[in-house]
Every structure is written in C-alpha cells, then in structure tokens.
C-alpha cells in the first residue's frame, strides 16, 4: 500500500471519529451552530472516501486506453469534495434560518463544547499531517482534504467560542448567526477548492516560480545546444509534464544531441520528482531567437 493510500485510509477513520464526536456535541447541546459543524463532518467522511478511491485509481499504471496514466482521477475527487461542501453549506443555511425564526436555549453547553474542542484538535493535527504529506507526494486529493480540514478547524474554533458566548450571555440569536457565518465560510472554501481542481483538469501551466526553475535548469544543462523554445508545462496529479523544442547546431551528431537531452531530463526529474519530459530536437535553421537561451 502506497503512502498516499495509507494516509487517505487514515483520513476516513479520522473523519468518522470526528463526526461521532461532533454529532454527540450537537445532541447534548441542541445548538444549531454545532449541528452545522457536524454536517460539515459528514461531508468530510464522504470526501475522505472519494479521495481514497481516487488515489487508488490514480496509482494504476498506464494502459492502452489511458497511455498517460490515471493521475487526473484525483482532480475529480477534489471537484466532488467542493460540490459536497457547497451542498453542506446550503443545508446549514436552511437550518440556521429556522433557528433564527425560533431560537432555543442550549442544554449541557460545557460538555458539548469540550467534546467539540477535542474533535477540532484531532482535525487540526490530521490536517497538518496531510499538508506535509500532500506537498511531499504532490497529491491533489490529499492537499484538497487537508485544506478542507483546515477550513473545518477554523470554523469549528469559531463555533466553539461563539457557542460559549451564547451559554454565557444567554443571547440565543447568536447561535443561528454563527451557523450562517460557518456556512458562508464553507461556501468560500468549496469554491476555492473547485477552482483549483478545475485548473488541473484544464491543464493549467505550473506556477510561475516552478516555471522559472524549469527554464533555469534547461538553460544551464543544455550546454552545446543553441536555444530552447515553445516550452509548455502542465500538472497531472503528482506528475509534471514538460515539453519543448531544443535547437542544436546543424552538424551536431545525433548521439551528442541525445546526450544533451539526457542531461536536461535528468536535471528536471531531480527537481520535479515524478515527471514526463518530451524534447523535440531541431537544427539551428529552426531557431526562433526567443524562449530559453543556453548558458
């Protein structure tokens, strides 16, 4: 079992445990804000299961129908998670409106808040772990799960403080107000997640900082060539695709040009990790005098 699969499996277990704790906190207090927090945890469970399935599918090797592999399956998981977040937010807004019209006092607020705080601490620790592993493994599904959990931690902390204020002050309308604010924050989180995932599905270029490093490596490792142009990049899950045209002197032997390509490819893979490099070699008559100049 891969590291990403192990973490995704762990996310399912953590999400179920946190859901149980938050549901208990809601049941004890009757707080609509804590109910909103529990509803988001239901989304966490569904999203964790979707991420696990996507990671398992994306790990499948290329086949005749998918010669570039299955890495984009992780983006579909992230889009699904964003949709689920939006659905949860709409459900919370509906409950918040009902509670606003008919506010009700809280029962056992101290115990409910303590349980909710424990659940929030668990989510915070697991989110930090997923961020570290997701960046190292370059897994969109793990990073999406980490961002969602981090948003959950922020909203849960606000809910705990707010429900505590309701218990201390007796201002009952604060409870549905907090639920509504939680829903708005969740909506923003879902929109941002879907935006990033759709960017991956649409083959957006790598971020400017990484592109600059790629250009620098091509320039420094292509000694003997003249220039590189038509550089294109994209991400597919944890794999980075890089392709460009490399212009070499017209009288250069094929073996020499191939050696330059091997050197560039090795340097790029050392920088990028999982990468697919495609280099089209051209004679100097094809030079465009733009793009990446060779140092």
Automatic annotation (TrEMBL):
<dbReference type="Pfam" id="PF01545">
    <property type="entry name" value="Cation_efflux"/>
</dbReference>
<dbReference type="InterPro" id="IPR058533">
    <property type="entry name" value="Cation_efflux_TM"/>
</dbReference>
<dbReference type="GO" id="GO:0015086">
    <property type="term" value="F:cadmium ion transmembrane transporter activity"/>
</dbReference>
<feature type="transmembrane region" description="Helical">
    <location>
        <begin position="7"/>
        <end position="28"/>
    </location>
</feature>
<dbReference type="GO" id="GO:0015093">
    <property type="term" value="F:ferrous iron transmembrane transporter activity"/>
</dbReference>
<feature type="transmembrane region" description="Helical">
    <location>
        <begin position="75"/>
        <end position="94"/>
    </location>
</feature>
<dbReference type="InterPro" id="IPR036837">
    <property type="entry name" value="Cation_efflux_CTD_sf"/>
</dbReference>
<dbReference type="InterPro" id="IPR050291">
    <property type="entry name" value="CDF_Transporter"/>
</dbReference>
<dbReference type="GO" id="GO:0005886">
    <property type="term" value="C:plasma membrane"/>
</dbReference>
<dbReference type="InterPro" id="IPR027469">
    <property type="entry name" value="Cation_efflux_TMD_sf"/>
</dbReference>
<keyword id="KW-0812">Transmembrane</keyword>
<keyword id="KW-0813">Transport</keyword>
<keyword id="KW-0472">Membrane</keyword>
<feature type="transmembrane region" description="Helical">
    <location>
        <begin position="34"/>
        <end position="55"/>
    </location>
</feature>
<feature type="transmembrane region" description="Helical">
    <location>
        <begin position="149"/>
        <end position="171"/>
    </location>
</feature>
<dbReference type="InterPro" id="IPR002524">
    <property type="entry name" value="Cation_efflux"/>
</dbReference>
<keyword id="KW-1133">Transmembrane helix</keyword>
<protein>
    <submittedName>
        <fullName>Cation-efflux pump</fullName>
    </submittedName>
</protein>
<dbReference type="GO" id="GO:0006882">
    <property type="term" value="P:intracellular zinc ion homeostasis"/>
</dbReference>
<feature type="transmembrane region" description="Helical">
    <location>
        <begin position="106"/>
        <end position="128"/>
    </location>
</feature>
<feature type="domain" description="Cation efflux protein transmembrane">
    <location>
        <begin position="11"/>
        <end position="202"/>
    </location>
</feature>
<dbReference type="Pfam" id="PF16916">
    <property type="entry name" value="ZT_dimer"/>
</dbReference>
<feature type="domain" description="Cation efflux protein cytoplasmic">
    <location>
        <begin position="211"/>
        <end position="284"/>
    </location>
</feature>
<comment type="similarity">
    <text>Belongs to the cation diffusion facilitator (CDF) transporter (TC 2.A.4) family.</text>
</comment>
<dbReference type="GO" id="GO:0015341">
    <property type="term" value="F:zinc efflux antiporter activity"/>
</dbReference>
<dbReference type="InterPro" id="IPR027470">
    <property type="entry name" value="Cation_efflux_CTD"/>
</dbReference>
């Amino acid at each position: 079992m891969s590291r990403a699969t192990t973490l995704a499996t762990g996310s399912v277990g953590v999400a179920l445990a946190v859901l149980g704790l938050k549901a208990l906190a809601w049941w004890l207090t009757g707080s609509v804000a804590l109910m909103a927090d529990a509803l988001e945890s239901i989304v966490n469970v569904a999203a964790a299961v979707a991420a696990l399935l996507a990671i398992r599918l994306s790990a499948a090797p290329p086949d005749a129908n998918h010669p570039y592999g299955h890495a984009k399956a992780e983006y579909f998981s992230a889009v699904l998670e964003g949709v689920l977040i939006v659905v949860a937010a709409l459900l919370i807004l509906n409950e918040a409106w009902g509670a606003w019209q008919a506010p009700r006092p809280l029962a056992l607020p101290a115990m409910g808040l303590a349980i909710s705080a424990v659940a929030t601490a668990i989510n915070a620790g697991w989110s930090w772990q997923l961020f570290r592993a997701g960046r190292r493994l370059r897994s969109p599904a793990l990073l999406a799960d980490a961002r969602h959990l981090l948003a959950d931690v922020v909203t849960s902390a606000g809910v705990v403080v707010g429900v505590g204020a309701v218990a201390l002050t007796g201002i009952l309308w604060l409870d549905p107000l907090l639920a509504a604010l939680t829903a708005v924050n969740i909506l923003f989180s879902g929109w941002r997640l879907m935006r990033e995932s759709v960017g991956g599905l649409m083959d957006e270029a790598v971020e400017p900082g990484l592109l600059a490093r790629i250009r620098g490596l091509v320039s420094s490792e292509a000694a003997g060539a003249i220039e590189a142009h038509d550089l294109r990049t994209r991400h597919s899950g944890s794999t980075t695709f890089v392709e460009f045209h490399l212009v070499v002197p017209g009288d250069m032997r094929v073996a020499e040009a191939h050696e330059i390509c091997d050197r560039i490819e090795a340097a790029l893979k050392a920088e990028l990790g999982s990468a697919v490099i495609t280099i089209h070699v051209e004679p100097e008559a094809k030079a465009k005098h733009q793009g990446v100049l060779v140092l």
